[in-house]
Amino acid sequence: MNVLLTGGCGFIGSNLVRLLLAERPGWRVVNLDKLTYAGNAENLAAVEGSSQYRFVRGDIGNGELVAEIFRTERIDVVMHLAAESHVDRSILAPAVFIDTNVRGTQVLLEAARQHGVKRFLHVSTDEVYGSLGPTGYFTETTPLDPSSPYSASKASSDLLALAYAHTFKLPVVVTRCSNNYGPYQFPEKLIPLMIANALRDLPLPVYGDGMNVRDWIHVEDHCRGLLAALEHGHDGEVYNFGASSERHNIDIVKQVLRHVGKPETLITYVKDRLGHDRRYAIDATKARTKLGWAPRHRFEDALGETVRWYREHRPWWERIISGEYLKYYETQYGRG
Ligand code: NAD
Ligand code: TDX
Questions:
Q1: Which residue lies with its CA nearest to atom 28 of ligand 1?
Q2: 188 CB-contact burial (10 Å; exposed 0-12 / middle 13-18 / buried 19+)
Q3: Which of 42, 127, 158, 221 is catalytic?
Q4: Most ligand 1 atoms within 8 A of CB, residue of 4, 6, 9, 11 to mutate
Q5: Maximum distance among all alpha carbons in the chain?
Q6: Nearest residue CA, atom 13 of ligand 2?
Q7: How far apart are CA 221 and CA 184, in angstroms?
């Protein structure tokens, strides 16, 4: 089976490439990634050279390139993860979110339709449902109500993917997952940013009152869910993934400090994010019952392991923070 995986040099994508190569040895994975600021080819250095794997540097919005990959690689299925993924950046500069998340997704859908595929897995987020009050959960039938330019662009791409399923019978499956954490996450997101700052004795910036709630899932559990949805999902269906680990941001930050062994005086309350969603919480009953999927990681243990990973991989995130990681591609392949 030939898989086109987009965004494989990012956080979730690189964890997914490793999982696929390890657990589906007969498969070949073609990773199409533009290497934006968030893409780090070094994340997959260990699999370069594998006959199961090929890296193509390019933009999902480049229709000619995408069509050529479908043709020459005889792609059977698509796992689409490439996206601009950071809410704060979408508030500062929304345009690229429309270009990549909306237009780029449409280019891929169209190429998949022209070529014909067995499955188009569109990877999305619980943020498309908007914000919850103190009670209740997102299910797959919760109306879409995105708040940020990021979540609005993801909701748009979900609707395009489902429209291709409805209109053209493209075998689309959409997944919506809660907040991921684990190794190789870019240190702009809450957990890796707090770990990296704590390790360097820098202030830990908590937005607003710190009482916003996110529902955390280990990246490996998400990746196993994506594989289950690819193999066992039904055409035109949506599956939510989450691990029932709701936490207030401030409690996460305090736990990180305890794991790192630094004082709570490093916590600094800063101006709130514009339009900050208050609470996310996922009901993953459908994925559990229809896909036979269940998360394996317990949040408190896996957070400790994640802190340990960042402690042991300090050069990895220091190269990112300094911008040094961008040189990896040039050293490996020359200028892109
Ligand atoms: P990330 O920002 O770490 O990685 C994104 C990757 O996409 C990078 O390698 C980047 O170079 C690549 N990319 C960006 N624009 C591209 C383009 N135009 N063409 C080709 N490649 C491009 O993101 P992530 O956290 O790994 O998220 C992956 C996917 O999962 C996204 O679609 C995101 O919306 C979704 N998701 C993320 C989370 C989470 O908590 N991180 C939760 C639910 C869903
Ligand atoms: O410095 C910070 N201080 C802070 O208080 C940062 C970076 C975040 N926060 C808060 C904002 C959120 O309430 O922490 C929470 C988590 O923030 P992020 O890590 O930016 O994640 P979030 O905005 O919830 O979105 C994430 O989950 C869903 C991913 O970035 C998305 O790609 C995914 O779709």
A1: 81
A2: middle
A3: 127
A4: 11
A5: 57
A6: 212
A7: 15
CA 18/CA 119 separation, integer angstroms: 20
Is residue 38 within 8 Å of residue 85, measured between CB atoms?
Answer: yes
Assign domain 2-333 to its CATH superfamily.
Answer: NAD(P)-binding Rossmann-like Domain (3.40.50.720)
Q: What is the pTM of this model?
A: 0.98
**The length of the chain, given as a count of residues:** 336
CA dist 229 and 241 (Å) reads 10
Is the ipTM value over 0.85, yes or no? yes
**How many other C-beta atoms can be found within 10 angstroms of the C-beta atom of residue 46?**
12
- Ligand 2 and 247: CB distance under 6 A: no
pLDDT tens digits in sequence order for the chain, 336 residues long:
999 999 999 999 999 999 999 999 999 999 999 999 999 999 999 999 999 999 999 999 999 999 999 999 999 999 999 999 999 999 999 999 999 999 999 999 999 999 999 999 999 999 999 999 999 999 999 999 999 999 999 999 999 999 999 999 999 999 999 999 999 999 999 999 999 999 999 999 999 999 999 999 999 999 999 999 999 999 999 999 999 999 999 999 999 999 999 999 999 999 999 999 999 999 999 999 999 999 999 999 999 999 999 999 999 999 999 988 877 767 765 654
| Run of H or E residues at 89 | helix 87-92
Distance 262 CA to ligand 1 centre (A): 31
**Cα–Cα distance for residue pair 261/106, rounded to 1 Å:** 47
Q: Does residue 150 carry a catalytic annotation?
A: yes
Active-site choice (53, 150, 280, 325):
150
Query: Ligand 1 mean position to 246 CA, how many Å?
Result: 22
